[in-house]
Amino acid sequence: MVIGYKRPLEEKDLWSLNTEDKSEKVVPQLVRRWDQECNKVKRPIDKTLYSPKRAAKGEKKEGQPIEESEILLAKTLQKTGEPSLFCALCRTFGPYFLVSSLYKIIHDILMFVGPEILRLLIQFVNDSSAPTWHGYFYTTLLLVCTCVQTLILQKYFHVCFVTGMRLRTAIVGAVYRKALVITNAARRTSTVGEIVNLMSVDAQRFMDLITYINMIWSAPLQVILALYFLWQNLGPSVLAGVAVMVLMVPLNAVIAMKTKTYQVAQMKSKDNRIKLMNEVLNGIKVLKLYAWELAFKDKVSAIRESELRVLMKTAYLGAVSTFTWVCAPFLVALSTFAVYVLVDDHNILDAQKAFVSLALFNILRFPLNMLPMVISSMVQASVSMKRLRVFLSHEELDEDNVERPAITACEIVDGAFSWSKHDSPTLKRINVRVPEGAFVAVVGHVGSGKSSLLSALLGEMQKQEGSVSIKGSVAYVPQQAWIQNATLKDNILFGREAKDSWYEKVVEACALLPDLEVLPGGDLTEIGEKGVNLSGGQKQRVSVARAVYCNCAVYLLDDPLSAVDAHVGKHIFEKVIGPQGLLQGRTRVLVTHGLSFLPQADLILVMVDGEITEMGSYTELLGRQGAFAEFLRTYASTEQEEVEESVGGEAGLLVSELLSCPSLCQDVKLSVFWEYMKAIGLPLSIFSIFLFFCHHLSSLGSNYWLSLWTDDPVINNTQPNREMRLGVYGAFGLTQGIAVFWYSVTVSVGGILASRYLHQTMLYNVLRSPMSFFERTPSGNLVNRFAKETDTIDTVIPSIIKMFMGSMFNVLGSCAVILIATPLVAIIIPPLGLLYFFVQRFYVASSRQLKRLESVSRSPVYTHFNETLLGTSVIRAFGEQQRFIRESDGRVDHNQTAYFPSIVANRWLAVRLEFVGNCIVTFAALFAVMARDSLSPGIMGLSISYALQVTTSLNWLVRMSSEVETNIVAVEKVKEYGDTEKEAEWRLEHSTLPAGWPTTGHIEIRNFGLRYREDLELAISDISVNIEGGEKVGIVGRTGAGKSSLTLGLFRIIEAAQGEICIDGVNIAKLGLHELRSRITIIPQDPVLFSGSLRMNLDPFDGYTDEEVWRALELAHLKNFVSGLPDKLNHECSEGGENLSLGQRQLVCLARALLRKTKILVLDEATAAVDLETDNLIQSTIRTQFEDCTVLTIAHRLNTIMDYTRVLVLDKGHMAEFGSPSNLIAKKGIFYKMAKDSGLV
Questions:
Q1: pLDDT tens column, 1188-1238
Q2: Which of 46, 297, 411, 462 has its Cβ near the most Cβ atoms within 10 Å?
Q3: Are residues 564 and 581 in contact, defined by beta-carbon separation less than 8 angstroms?
Q4: Where do the ABC transporter domain residues begin and end (predicted)?
Q5: How far is CA 240 from CA 227, 245, 330, 453, 1124, in A?
Q6: How much is the pTM?
Q7: Element (H, E) at 555
Q8: How far apart are CA 680 and CA 672, in angstroms?
Q9: SS3 642
Q10: What values do phi and psi take at 495, rounded to 5?
């Protein structure tokens, strides 16, 4: 703590976790118990299979059916009920937790000592004959009791929090382990966002609940004790008060139920919103290129609005329930006193009765307040528990989908496979047998099931019939490389130990040496998440290197050569895959579109529509004149050539730069509160503060009135004018109620207005940010802002502010009353106040820092989890599950290391504070005893009953003020995106653009250059080109020559550093970005689809008719496919478009371009991942449909641009050659060399 006060805490100051709190200790316990629960539930159903009649019949024919029925018996374990997660949790954490219940009981009993002592004190003041030492004795007793109570309560909380912490560790661990083994079908039911939510939100809920769960039995206990003492004090008239309380309970139960339904609705829209945000952030580049930001902004806002409507309803309900609760104690007191006074004239309300009862009613208030909270938090936890249970009981991949000890390297016999149990099989009648050490090539058109075949071999698909077997270890290279957020070297080693000579061989063979020279840190360069700072080809090569390095027996390669340049592809094939490569003698299955590699394969499988139609060696197949020979004949002329483009080196921002957040170590500034008030609206803020004030004034007034009432002289055993006293007392109560209701409404509504405003501005600001911002900021951070921080602003901050204001006024009120009663206290309050203030500052410094460390260490847990979900198939194929589980546990433990001290700090604080409170009580009592002659018992009772409340209020006040500070950080974080750099304006106020611009599509580039960051040199420079309207221009060059950079400049994704580009004579730098981007079209490198209907993916603004959309699909050769879908245009694309094959996604992008039909079309690396057939489709479509348009193509296969009007050759960011293809070949320059490599010359 002391360290924390002197300077901001850092990681190294934290102590390490106790062993029994670590993941490797906690998680296996839970997993073990959960498995027991699941097994209890799965019990074999044997009645149907073992009916004796059937067996007898079977016996007569032959002995077989009996055996069969036994096999069936073993398989049909059916779930008879849901396994109970609750039992599993109880059995894991119950015993330790029970200790806390013991503390709680002792504490509850001590609570009632206070009022009893108060009674004795008042008696002592009234009875002037009592010796003075009685008074001092009572005072000391009061001090001792309160202190013991404090210590016990803190111990109790400590136990609770530790349990909560272990619980969270266990749940996160269990979810992580489960995510590694669920089937693909199950993966599809819950998106990545939802699974991450299980880890973040739901695990957190359990942690919060644990602290309160004991209230379930302790609250009723407190109520019973309180009633017993009240009965002694006031007799039967207590029942009136109890009746009022009992009536309140069902009312609140109804409200709670309502709130719960709203909550579920809100969670649903929140999940949707975050899923959408996730996609927007992942596909942001495409949104920018297409100028679609506004469409998606509206989609997100629509979901957000429905969410806020629900929140609004919840707010009104909340106001009603606050109203009932704040007024309840008052109504109870009123009704009790009224009945007590009116039942019998001789019942006298004296100080002793009134104030002891008030003190007891105050105690009653807490458990009654807590009960509904606990119940609603239990309800929330049960919702979470259900979600967790569903997730943890998803079906898992069968380990026996693939039989390991196989005779040959890998074989499939009569296989039929589907992605989920109930789908029709994607692969049918598969029979393959691969001898050891063979090199097998798999070819076929887009969507013919090549990748699925590899998945089947890996056991990723649901096996419907047949058998699969593989011998030895497996390495797998997926079609879309999966790269971890770690150094390049770690990505290749993938958890194996480093053998330098072998490592260097692998890197060399995979052509990674030149890339290592470009990257800022060589092979120790941090790679951002999803590999943002590597180009497609580099990612793919790293992926291959990883597979080669791990030295396995069987290699499954899913088209790894598609994303790399031709010469690199050749190099990798020769050095790695081919007969002389590093992998010679291993079994290799290569899915490929490259024909040049086929002659060297030992066996070729030709796939059509999920079946293997032909297999044999190259020569055999050619001789057969079947589908394969045709396939070759069509494409033999067009030998494919690929070149790859690297944006990588330049955009390679190191991730370490990102993590050093600016907002780590300052106090929360007042300006943040001011911002928040402005977001609510100043009039509303001031009005709600005024209402708070009214409420507390009237509450003080009513109690003061009560003390005057009790001091009324007693005449003939009755008190005169009690009706008047009662009436005024009631009036005070009424004012109080009205004020409460309204301030509750204003604060909640204000909070919602603020959160709407903040979310809108943040969304707008993030979408307005330039591309470089997204490359720098991990998407996890952004999603966190939209999920966690927004949630805090929505729900947490308003309620915290309410409580903060409430407790602040309470403390001030109490002090005022004590001062009026015993002016001597004025000597004591300032020093105590100072002490209190010091403790609070001291604590907040450390606590805030701990909170920050905790949240900083929380992100890596989710980032890692996200990564794992994306790469499950790779992790499974390599058999690396255990290492990833260890890594995840390590990260969770690291996070809990920061969390644990913050629990301890909380306890530290509470002990100090309660001590301050106890001092106030003691002194109030002491001075009252000293001044017993001049004090009326009424005033004295008032002062001490208020003093007894001070402790809890003080406690709340500090807790709340630090909560307000820690949570208001959310506002700060959300605001901080308002100040980041923005792109140029989207639309200019008065644009002078003619409606159909660009009409001719004439592009003039004058000594143009751009750089990726201020401190880097120009990526391309001094490029001057004049392209007439309707020309077709190819752009070629080696990796990193700046081909993509040029298109980025054309779309102003990166602003020019020098020179300018004019289209039809208009300088594009003078336009609004949307005006520019919506008038030129690009078919980008990686086809990105968003989840939603196919129609939305083609035309998010609904600007075109259905006929136009169908026409575009027809031209993109997708019409047959789409009309074959059950929902046609409304076919739901899954997250990232994963339910379409890569080739189909590419064609959807083509359809987008056809729909927009602008005068300028840019094609970027669009043809790399597509088989030759699709490639031809795309090329011919472009030739026919975009005849009169200017087409710029970044080319990989030179044959596509040989008939273009001109070719621009770039080299190292400069313009090397520019002219028609025939001229350039005659020149014998760079272009000639490239053409020669491709065999075109």
A1: 888 888 877 777 778 888 888 888 788 888 888 888 888 888 888 888 877
A2: 462
A3: no
A4: 410-634, 1005-1237
A5: 12, 9, 13, 76, 72
A6: 0.66
A7: strand 554-558
A8: 12
A9: coil
A10: 85, -5
